[in-house]
TrEMBL record:
This protein's UniProt keywords: Carbohydrate metabolism, Cytoplasm, Hydrolase, Magnesium, Metal-binding
MF-aspect GO terms: fructose 1,6-bisphosphate 1-phosphatase activity; magnesium ion binding
GO CC terms, sorted: cytosol
Enzyme class: hydrolase
Species assigned in the record: Polaromonas hydrogenivorans
Protein name, UniProt field: Fructose-1,6-bisphosphatase class 1
Main localization category: cytoplasm
UniProt KW RNA-binding keyword: no
């Protein structure tokens, strides 16, 4: 049996052999992974720990925060602020950026995260996760500002998520393909279980919240209608549907076996570009999908080329198997 390769060894090889990542970034990723391990332990406690239910407070998105949203946010802040690799952090659960206090060494990276993704599934024992994205701080000595974070997704230097499901799995890219690490609870460490993950260009499985159908725009309606017509329709093949309502779990399924995920703009809140957030949901997931051979657009443009204007900006998301994403994107330009 091939020797178990730990996350640390994998990253050291990425650093030393492939020269893909500087030592500081490697150390930052290890700290994020350790934080995810602690969050996984809190999640596993469930009703045995004081982690279920709402916290009663509201976040900048206007959502009622769950206790685990706040616990996960605090774990990530505490783990990363003293490590010396970061200049600042931003989170779905914090209105503005968190600048690393100057009693700690200042690093050159910016970390963004969705500390707990799939919050509506926390109390019903369905897979949830943490999503993260790393950018470089711009050169110069001036203090970090929110504008430093407003970089296009194609500027990410690392991106990943950790899914807390039957297994705890960390999925990562530093621009050299996608690797998956499973938490070995006995050892307490992440072990490499999949490397150079690739997703098929074609698929017969789509993921969308069908209950929003009457609110969708024509191109999305057409695309889903054709999938539902199956082999009797213009697609000539049957499609299956899945919707876990945890983006991290729906995307993980796609990285494991292909598929297409859509959370498009809809008429419920026409002034919003979509439900999901560009900086710490769509950008990291889009880079992972592209690194695995897939595609990700907002229906019109490659998500990674979008220039952000606000920290908590929302975006329409279509990602997964390349040929399906290209098809639904083509429908948006009237083809
Ligand atoms: O409940 P809906 O409308 O299907 O939305 C589900 C989507 O909302 C989310 O839960 C939003 O993320 P958060 O849980 O981090 O707020 C996604 O994970 C998921 O894809
Ligand atoms: Mg989320
Ligand atoms: Mg969240």
């Amino acid at each position: 049996m091939s020797p178990k390769i730990s996350l640390t060894r994998y990253l050291v090889e990425q650093q030393r052999i492939d020269g893909h990542i500087p030592p500081e970034l490697r150390l930052l990723i290890e700290v994020v992974a350790r934080a995810c391990k602690s969050i996984s332990q809190a999640v596993n406690k469930g009703a045995l720990g004081d982690v279920m239910g709402t916290a009663g407070s509201e976040n900048v998105q206007g959502e009622i925060q769950k206790k685990l949203d706040i616990i996960a946010n605090e774990v990530l802040i505490e783990a990363n602020e003293w490590g010396g690799h970061l200049a600042a952090m931003a989170s779905e659960e914090m209105d503005s950026i968190y600048v690393v206090p100057n009693r700690y060494p200042q690093g050159e990276y910016l970390l963004m995260f969705d500390p707990l993704d799939g919050s509506s599934n926390i109390d019903v024992n369905v897979s949830i996760g943490t999503i993260f994205s790393v950018l470089k701080k711009s050169e110069g000595d001036r203090g970090v500002e929110e504008s430093d974070f407003l970089q296009a997704g194609n500027q990410q230097v690392a991106a990943g998520y950790c899914v807390y499901g039957p297994q705890t799995t960390l999925v990562l890219t530093v621009g050299d393909g996608v690797a998956m690490f499973t938490l070995d609870r006995e050892q307490g460490s992440f072990v490499l279980t999949e490397e150079n993950v690739t997703i098929p260009d074609d698929t017969q499985e789509f993921a969308i919240n069908m209950s929003n159908m009457r609110h969708w725009d024509e191109p999305v309606k057409r695309y889903i209608d054709e999938c539902l017509e199956g082999k009797d329709g213009p697609r000539g093949k049957n499609f299956n549907m899945r919707w876990i309502a945890s983006m991290v779990a729906d995307v993980h399924r796609i990285l494991c076996r292909g598929g297409v995920f859509l959370y498009p703009w809809d008429k419920r809140e026409p002034e919003k570009a979509g439900k999901l957030r560009l900086m710490y949901e769509a950008n990291p997931m889009s880079w992972l999908i592209e690194q695995a051979g897939g595609a990700a657009t907002n229906g019109k443009q490659r998500i990674l080329d979008l220039q952000p204007t606000r920290l908590h900006e929302r975006v329409s998301v279509m990602l997964g198997s390349k040929n399906e994403v290209e098809r639904v994107t083509a429908y948006h330009s009237g083809l």
